[in-house]
Structure to design on (266 residues):
């Protein structure tokens, strides 16, 4: 097992309802299958508990915990819960993100409260969480941090604040990597491309008043590799690699998992 007995704190381990699997839940399941003791954090405790039940049904270990990354108290609470349960944190996996809900297509009209909300969740939430976990990993002289960003950080898109927040995540993690390699801590970023996940498909189906299948067909057509979107499992397998000893010499990397979409840049 590639993560045997390691403690993985997965922030954003639940998901919205849908007929596919999200990045966070897929990662939690895969980590547990590879021997990790998972602490599944989500703002929606019922969803975290659902993830935990799936893991336990397969014989794995998972503690579900409620937590809102915009709250310093909640962040401290789920980090403390992880340490109390397992005595350490070997992996921090940050999989939380929101968009501007269509209100951020033009920086001149972007409402300030939308800017603040998206930055608070996507970027500051990562900061709040990692600043609590890094001292624990420094004492251990080992640890892995992986953040889930987006190819929108580097691709043209009319989603101003989402792009800015994801680019900020990339930069923040680069600084975390360079500031912590002396402590044996590795920090990397995954940038998923178009994924067939409940949040991605559901939002576009509702906002466009079209069927999920229509959304899938339109998104599939834009992906270079086999004209097919990725899934939450593709993000999860990349996350597993970066968390494992197979990636022990990799830090400060921003890895696209996108079916070749960023390869078209330029």
């Amino acid at each position: 097992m590639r993560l045997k007995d390691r403690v993985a704190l997965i922030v954003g381990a639940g998901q919205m309802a849908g007929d596919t699997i999200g990045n966070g839940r897929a990662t939690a399941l895969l980590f547990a299958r590879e021997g990790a003791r998972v602490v599944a954090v989500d703002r929606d405790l019922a969803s975290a508990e659902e993830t935990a039940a799936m893991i336990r049904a397969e014989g794995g270990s998972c503690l579900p915990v409620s937590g809102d990354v915009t709250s310093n108290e909640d962040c401290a609470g789920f980090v403390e819960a992880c340490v109390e349960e397992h005595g350490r944190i070997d992996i921090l996996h940050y999989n939380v993100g929101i968009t501007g809900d269509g209100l951020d297509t033009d920086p001149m009209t972007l409402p300030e409260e939308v800017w603040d909300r998206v930055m608070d969740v996507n970027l500051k939430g990562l900061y709040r969480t990692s600043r609590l976990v890094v001292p624990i990993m420094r004492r251990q002289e080992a640890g892995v941090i992986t953040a889930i960003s987006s190819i929108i950080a580097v691709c043209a898109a009319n989603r101003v604040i989402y792009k800015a927040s994801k680019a900020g995540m990339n930069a923040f993690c680069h600084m975390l990597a360079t500031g912590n390699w002396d402590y044996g801590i590795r920090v990397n970023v995954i940038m998923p491309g178009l994924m067939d996940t409940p949040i991605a498909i559901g939002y576009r189906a509702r906002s466009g008043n079209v069927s999920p299948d229509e959304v899938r067909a339109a998104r599939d057509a834009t992906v270079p590799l086999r004209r097919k979107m990725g899934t939450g499992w593709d993000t999860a397998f990349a996350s597993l690699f970066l968390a494992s000893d197979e990636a022990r010499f990799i830090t400060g990397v921003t890895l696209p998992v996108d079916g070749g979409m960023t390869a078209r840049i330029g």
Remarks:
- The chain has a mean pLDDT of 96.
